[in-house]
Specification:
four-stranded antiparallel sheet, 128 residues, 3 helices, rod-shaped, 39% helix, alpha+beta
Amino acid sequence: MQQKFGVSLIEIAMLLVVLMIISFTAIPNFPKTSNPEIAQDNLNQSIAKVQSAYALAIAYKGNFPGLSEVVEFIDADFASEKNDMSGIIFRDGVEHISISTFTDDSCEVPTNDQQAGITDIVRCVQYK
């Protein structure tokens, strides 16, 4: 009796399926950037987007804007959302970053969008 050496087409297909399943579950878990300098640059760009939106809201309104008005000026693809108490939360890829907003110039009293028009006026934007 002769021994058969090699692999069949079915065995190769099964191996590819297993490798694809492993890659689809492992790839999303890798960090967006492995270089800390690139990650810091991305963070700085994201913070600059929020600060630019704040400046545009001031220019458009002619006065200090409310929290929801600042959010409106953030790019739609930036995936921004209001946070009830601490300011603006946005998604930078898979990471969520919070930019704090305050009702005073010294950046001590946080905004609160639950009392629109009273305590949601943004006078200071700061990343903490």
